């Protein structure tokens, strides 16, 4: 099968399309023929190891100290069709259309992936593979961050880094809950953010949102680049500041601030629960939530897709099409 192999930490050109052996599913696994995957910021951070220093050593220990060795195929989410099942699989059958996160296995930049059946969700019939593959990261994490912030109808919410995979989902979900949303991102994304429900947008290259005088019930920093002290000042009493990608300093300050003030600073990873997928799919079916796809690239052009994501221009999701699909 074709797969994009990653054998060095570095720029996009370290990704090479090669022929590799097709995986064989274990008893509890299914073999998925991949039709679509994505390039998210997390893929690029792993590729070049530009991650918060807190995670750099653990990631090297997990993947390989000098070069990635334990896992050599990136890709964190996929949509496709089940090609084969292990003898212990009970929830799915050959031919089922599914989507899934790959979690710590990675591996979605390939024509076939073997995953435990517990990872998989049936693809809704009214969505394309390209749309569905964006749900595990953007949808689940966007929902998770909003729930951590305890967002309620009528509240004011500031979303920093709102124009990416997670942010575009978070804006739409918060809007469906009746929140008033201020979205922060670069100038090329502001029109999109207005179109998907943001009530107010801020171009961070021209305006310091921490000095606007506004206050918020909830602040969500998707990308981990906000001013910690500035955002704490913007919080209303009993407000929530959620850190989507915190460094060590922010994590330490979060605990102290939560203990010593009436403001809650929260971080943590999302869980992939069946009820969360069902919630998102119901919103999509109702028309209140729509996956945002900026660009599509074939698997053969994945290095170019990584270069585009590295540029910071990505609006919503960048999708990689794999094989033939409908």
Total helical segments: 10
Q: Taking Cα atoms only, what radius of gyration do you get, to the nearest Å?
A: 20 Å
Overall average residue pLDDT = 94
Morphology call: globular
Largest sheet: 7 strands, mixed
Note down, in words, how this protein is organized.
With 326 residues, the protein is an alpha/beta fold. Helices cover 30% and strands 27% of the residues. The chain has 10 helices and 15 strands. The chain has helices at 41-48, 53-63, 129-132, 135-148, 165-176, 190-195, 228-234, 248-260, 274-286, 302-310, and strands at residues 2-6, 15-19, 29-39, 77-85, 97-101, 112-116, 121-122, 156-160, 180-185, 200-203, 216-221, 235-243, 264-267, 293-298, 317-321. The strands form 3 sheets. Strands 3, 4, 5, 6, 7, 14 and 15 form a 7-stranded mixed β-sheet that branches. Strands 10-9-8-11-12-13 form a 6-stranded parallel β-sheet. Strands 1-2 form a two-stranded antiparallel sheet. β8 (156-160), α5 (165-176) and β9 (180-185) form a beta-alpha-beta unit. α4 crosses α5. The longest helix has 14 residues, at 135-148. It is globular and about 55 Å long. The two termini are 20 Å apart.
């Amino acid at each position: 099968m074709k797969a994009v192999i990653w054998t060095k930490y570095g720029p996009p050109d370290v990704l090479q399309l090669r022929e590799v052996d097709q995986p064989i599913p274990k008893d509890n696994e299914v073999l998925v023929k991949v039709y679509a995957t994505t390039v998210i910021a997390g893929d690029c951070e792993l590729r070049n190891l530009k991650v918060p220093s807190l995670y750099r050593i653990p990631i090297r220990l997990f993947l390989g100290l000098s070069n990635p060795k334990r896992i050599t195929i990136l890709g964190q989410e996929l949509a496709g069709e089940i090609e084969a099942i292990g003898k212990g699989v009970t929830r799915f059958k050959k031919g089922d259309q599914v989507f899934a996160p790959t979690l710590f296995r990675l591996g979605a930049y390939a024509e076939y992936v073997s995953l435990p059946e517990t990872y998989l969700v049936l693809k809704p019939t009214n969505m394309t593979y390209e749309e569905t593959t964006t749900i595990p990261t953007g949808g689940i994490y966007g929902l998770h961050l909003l729930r951590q912030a305890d967002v309620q109808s009528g509240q004011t919410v500031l979303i920093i880094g709102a124009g990416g995979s997670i942010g575009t989902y978070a804006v739409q979900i918060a809007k469906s809950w009746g929140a008033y949303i201020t979205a922060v991102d670069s100038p090329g994304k502001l029109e999109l953010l207005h179109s998907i429900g943001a009530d107010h947008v801020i171009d961070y290259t021209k305006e310091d949102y921490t000095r606007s005088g506004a206050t918020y019930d909830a602040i969500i920093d998707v990308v981990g680049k906000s001013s910690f002290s500035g955002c704490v000042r913007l919080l209303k009493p009993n407000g929530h500041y959620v850190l989507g990608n915190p460094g060590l300093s922010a994590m330490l300050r979060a605990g102290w601030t939560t203990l010593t003030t009436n403001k809650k600073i929260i971080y943590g990873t999302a869980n992939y629960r069946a009820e969360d997928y069902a919630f998102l799919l119901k919103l999509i079916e109702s028309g209140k939530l729509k996956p945002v796809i900026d660009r599509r690239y074939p698997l053969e052009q994945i290095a170019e897709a990584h270069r585009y994501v590295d540029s910071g221009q990505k609006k919503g999701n960048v999708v990689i099409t794999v094989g033939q699909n409908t």
